[in-house]
Every structure is written in C-alpha cells, then in structure tokens.
C-alpha cells in the first residue's frame, strides 16, 4: 500500500532486485549528490550545536573567533560563489556529454555519468551549496556575537569546492581521451565477466549433459514471455534450485540481451514433476524491460567498443579505431579465460536443470570484430590491423579455438579486390595473415591466399 503512494520513478527502484537497483542507481546523477546533501545536513547540525549550544568560542583562542556580522557576510558571499562553480561544472558536464554523443556512441554517456569521480564532484558541489544555504538560514537572525565552527567549516568547504572544480575539469578532459575511454569500457566489461557471469553461471556449468530426461521430453510444455522488452537479468541460482525441487529441466529459447515480444516462446520445461508447475514463479526470475543492460550481457560491452571504432572510421580517425581493436582483442582473452561455452547448468546433485541457448567462441569473435570489419570495408589499413590483432589473440588462447580465428580472418579478406589494393597494403596484410597461419597451423591455406594476391602467370 505504501509503495503505491510513492512516485512512479521511485516505485521502479523498489521493484528491482538488489543487484539491478544498485546498478541503476549508479547510472543516475542524483544518487551521490543526495548522499552528500544528507551529509551536509549533518554538518549543519553539528556546527550549529558547537557554536549556538555548546558555545565553543569560550574554549578557543581569540584568533578563531569571528564576529557574527562578518560570518553572515562570509556565508552569504560563498552561497553565490559555490553556486557559480556548480554552474560551471554543470556546463562542463553538458559539453562533455554533447561531445560524446556527436563523436562517439550515445551509450557512452552512461559510462561517464556512472563514473564515481563524476558523481563525487557533483555531490561535493551540491552538498557544499546546501550547507552554506542552511547555515545562512539559521544564523541570519541569531543574537550570538561570535562564531568559530561555522566560519571555519564554511571556509574549508569553499576551498574544497575550488579544488573540486579544478579536479573535475581535469577529470573530464582526461576521461574524454579515447584511449582512456576504451580502456574504461574494456575494464567495465571484464569486471562484469569476472564478478557477474562467473558467479551466476560458471559454478553451475556442466561439460556433459548427462540425464536429460528424454523419456519425459515428449510432454514438453512452453512458457511465453509475460511482457515485451529486452531480457536483462536471469536469476539462474534460484531457477536451478526451484527446478530441482520440481524435478524438471528448463530450456531457454532466448538469451540475455535478446528482444522478445509478449507471449513469444521464452522457456520450455519437462520432467517427472511437470504436471503441477507454477509457471509464473519462473517468469518472475527473468527480468524483462524496455532497455538493454550490461549486468549479464557481455555482448553489449562489445557493442559499445565496436561503436567507437565504427564512429572513428566515419570520422576518418584510424588511430582511434586501431586502439579500439586492440582493446577488443584483450577483451577476447578475458572471454576465453572465464567463460565455458556449454549450455548446461546443473544443480548440486550434478543433474542438469537449465539448458541455455548454445554459444561458441566464434559468436563472440563476430560480435567483437564483425561490425568493425563490415564498416571498415576497403580500409585496408584497418583490415590489416584487425587480422594482426586476431593473430595476437590466437597466440594467447587455446589451440582448439584457432580454426575459428583463421576462418574469420579468411572471410574478412575475401572481399578485398586485389586489383585496387596498394602494394605496401598488400605486403603488410599478407604478413599479418602469414603470422596468423603459423600460429593456427594453416600454412598451406596461406599459400593459396598469397597466390590470390600474386597470381602465377
């Protein structure tokens, strides 16, 4: 009942899971400033108690005692000063966000807004402004002759605001540098793989399917999506536990990050206990909403990096595209190290309970490099850099995935017209392909590629 009295914008946070709520709050600008405003109110109470109730001017040196009129003048002056610094900071923030939207991807705005340094800077300005405003309100008509805590804290907060302004400008200009942007986005994706996907999935992965209850599969029952939207989060742990209690196997027909319409087939289940199942409880374990999130969707992080490279190609900025390709290659190593490409999730009794959509390493290769390859087209420099990065990935991962990298590289250069490529571009491209062929043990196939560029008369 109380929840319905709250504004809709607040209700949505109350309905979220703990992890999703934390993620969404970090993506907003009001969360951290609100915390600093509460902290400033505490400072107001403490300083006023020290000056008006405990009268600490009696226990301090005369040097620290400030006349009441001077204190009011100081506080009133700093109200305008801190507000001005806040306005400049907001203006700088808008410039940064506008620049990102035009030159790169609008998705990057969330990364800048959710950055802790951005939120702390805005929080300090808002907290300091609220402090001097409230202090001015309470000391305006007091008959107290001297203040100690109020002017000292006020001067300290004004100094903090000035330093924070310089810090924020430096932070914004540093964060805007492309190599910092791509590195931050790569680390964000790696953190999501390490902290989210490993905890949610890897501990339940099973290499072999085992007993899939095939005798019961003829009575497989479908479950449709309860609403339209993107699949954001799945509570795999709870789903596996409930499937164990119900003695069923659940199969997904869509994956996190997919867009699905209401009543589209989302799940199906079968097993000895499938006759009396509460389907709604399984639907509630899958959060579907109007936007994509990165919490369990590694491919969205890859899309962000790919969009930077694509925008850079459109803006004739090959250096940025090259840097993004390098970061993508490093992200591929994280994917290979921490993700097991098996769709089977088992319970603590080693019985498979959830079957996901099958994925393979080459699907991540395509998501990471495929879009860049498409928009690079006849940009032979970028194609060469792409092949060279794939060769570096091949040197660092298990040989069982080498054929995927080789096939992707071969399909990448298939569209190149040998008659219009410059001689040096051809030389460097073939050097990258030769390096990849040695690593992946495809030397004979490389000779056929070489003959394509240098046909024998």
Descriptive overview:
- By secondary structure, the protein is an alpha+beta fold.
- The chain contains 18 helices and eleven strands.
- The chain has helices spanning 2-5, 8-15, 18-26, 31-53, 68-103, 108-114, 116-139, 149-175, 178-200, 236-246, 279-283, 298-314, 318-338, 361-376, 380-396, 402-413, 423-440, 443-453, and strands at residues 66-67, 146-147, 205-206, 221-224, 229-234, 249-252, 259-260, 265-270, 286-289, 344-346, 352-355.
- The strands form three sheets. It has a six-stranded mixed sheet, covered by helices on one side.
- Helix 13 (318-338) packs antiparallel against helix 14.
- The radius of gyration is 29 Å and the shape is flat.
What order do the helices and strands follow?
HHHHEHHHEHHEEEHEEEHEHHEEHHHHH
- The number of E-state strands comes to 11
N-end to C-end Cα span: 84 Å
Mean pLDDT: 84
Number of helices: 18
What does the largest sheet look like?
A: 6 strands, mixed
Approximate strand percentage: 5-15%
- Helix/strand-derived class? alpha+beta
Radius of gyration: 29 Å
Helix content: 55-70%
Strand order of the largest sheet: 3-10-11-6-8-4
Instruction: Indicate the overall shape.
Output: flat
Low-confidence parts = none
InterPro entries: DUF2254_membrane
Keywords: Membrane, Transmembrane, Transmembrane helix
Protein name: DUF2254 domain-containing protein
Transmembrane segments: 29-54, 74-100, 121-140, 146-169
